[in-house]
Amino acid sequence: MVNFVEAQKPLLKRLMRMAGLRPVDVEIEPGTTMHIWVPKHHVSKKSGTIRPVVEHGGVDGDGEKAGAAKRKKSAAESRPNVVLVHGFAAEGIVTWQFNFGVLVSRYNLYIPDLLFFGKSATASADRSPELQARCVAAALARLGVARCDVVGFSYGGMVAFKLAETRPDLVRSLAVSGSVVAMTDAVNSATMTRLGATSSAELLMPETLKGLKQLLSISMYKKMWFPDRFYKDYLKAMFNNRKERMELLQGLITSNMDAKIPTFQQKIMLIWGEEDKIFDIELAKKMKEQLGDGCFLHGIPKAGHLLHVERPCAYNRQLQRFLSYVNSEEKEAAGGGAN
């Protein structure tokens, strides 16, 4: 019997290819591979493998035709780089299916699957967000990405914060929604109590239709009806690698004693659903104060935790404004020069 959730993936992949993106598997180290959608100029047409990035862009060759190809390649590679980091319920292209299309014409998009999502996996026993951040950074380095803006949602937001903290040379700016800098004991306990769950694993890794319906209900502002067949297909398609993902959730929890708010060098935009029940907007306001003057908060009304799915147009507009802002600011700082 056809799984309707899985059946949409070939269509999504086709749309990604039409937008100029290609899937690659980047070996970070023996036993660790990250699957990531990248701009097609990274992929060799003949072999389908990753094409080494040539400094200043372009491909070696002689003649007018080769020169035109080189100029075109250089223009594509010189666009700003944007990395989209997914949350806990789905892999990259499923998470960002309503958002990548408005960005792909102006930016080089990179959409990784975090470890134990999609085709990404590791033999390492480490389950921390630090490992996820290191692997994203290593994959980008392999692709020749030296500077980027990072967009993170929920679990991906925590990975994005860690990436910005540890690699300020790589991350120019952050846009985060439905997330926290670190999941402390206090934040986790308060969140689970408010939602009536005994643990994050019970909430985020449902095994029954009832559990999945409850998760979607608290994740969205609007109450949406789906047939039970949809929920069954979603459980089969999206919640694999259960053991490893539960370990990822355990690896998120930080002791209150060890928790601290880093001093971020980057501009940070918090894009929030005003009706987010998992991480409410009051938490976002507190986080904005803690992060200082370089952090901005924009609330989207009538949107919950899944704001980029519920209200993609409003989310996309704000994200585009922020990315345009950080690009224009860098150009002004450089005296009007190109990035």
UniProtKB/TrEMBL annotation:
SUPFAM superfamilies: alpha/beta-Hydrolases. InterPro entries: AB_hydrolase_1, AB_hydrolase_fold, Meta-cleavage_hydrolase. Residues 80-312 form the AB hydrolase-1 domain. Gene3D superfamilies: alpha/beta hydrolase (3.40.50.1820). Pfam families: Abhydrolase_1. This is AB hydrolase-1 domain-containing protein.
